[in-house]
Design a protein that fits this description.
Elements (H helix, E strand, L loop, with lengths): L1 E2 L5 H17 L7 H13 L4 E2 L12 E5 L30 E6 L2 E2 L8 E6 L4 H19 L7 H14 L2 E3 L13 E2 L14 H10 L2 E2 L12 E4 L2 E4 L8 E2 L2 E5 L3 E4 L2 H7 L6
Parallel strand pairs: 1-14
Antiparallel strand pairs: 2-5, 3-4, 4-6, 7-11, 8-9, 10-13, 11-12, 13-14
Amino acid sequence: MKINITFNRARYAAYTGLVETIAFGTQKNNFTELDFRDLWLKNIQKHEGVIASGWYAPPPHGMAVLAGTTNYPSRISFDTLRNEPNWPTNNVINWKTNLLYCYCSPLNNEYGMPGDLAITLYFGNDERIIRHFQNTHKATHEVINALAYVKNSNELFDVSQEIFASHHLKNCVISKTDLLPLDLGHTYPRVLNPLQSNLSADDHKIISKARQFINATSFWDFTEGLQFTIEPQLVSLDDVTLPQISYHYLLCKQEDFWLCNDVDALMDDYNLLRG
C-alpha cells in the first residue's frame, strides 16, 4: 500500500484548511464551533478547483464541528450529522481538555467527485481516553490492511466486524441514505458535469444516491481508479463512558492501493498515537 495524501484535490484542500484553522484557533480564547466552521470554509475556498460548501447537507455547508467534554454522554458521540442538534453552535472550544470532531465535504468542481474529511481529536491528558484512541486507531488500520487479501466490499465489511470485535469495539456509523443502518464507508462517485460554485438540491441528491456502501449486503469490486472511504465510528464494548472515535481514510485503487492518511499527522501532533 502506498501513502499518497494529494490524489484527491478537494480532500487535500480540506486537510490543509483544517491544519490552518486549528493553528489559528488554538491561539484564541473564545473560538467557537461556528468560528471554526466559518474559518475552515474560508481556508478551503482559497484552493482553486474546489467547491468548499459541501455536498453532504444538511448540515449547513456540508460541515460539522463539535466540541465535547470527556463527560458521558459526549457531544461528539452523535448519531447522524443530519440532525440539527449535531450542527455547529456558539459552544466555545477548550483547547486544553476538549474532544473535537470535525467534518467537511468539499468537491472537485471539474467532475464533481467528493473530498470528504473527518477526524476526532483530543487535547487533554486522560490516559484512559488516549489508550482508547490507540486501540481504535490500531483496529481501523487492521481493517485497511485487510485490503491485501479481501476481494470485494462485502468481504471487507465482514472482516471489519471481526476485527472491531477482537478489539472490544463496535462500529456505530449510521447513514440515512443507505438501505442498511450500518456501514463502514462508501465510494466517491464521478457523476456530474463541471459544477458551479453552489450546488443545487438535485446535485446533493445525485451525489448522495450515487455512492455504493460497504455494508453487510454490498458486493462491488475494487476496480482500477476507484476512490472509496473507510470511516468507522467506534465505541468501546467494555466502557460506555469512553467517547465515540471517528476515523476517515480515503483510498484509491491503482495497481496497488493508495492510502490518504493525512489525519494521522494531526493525531500524532496531539500525542494520540504513541505506544
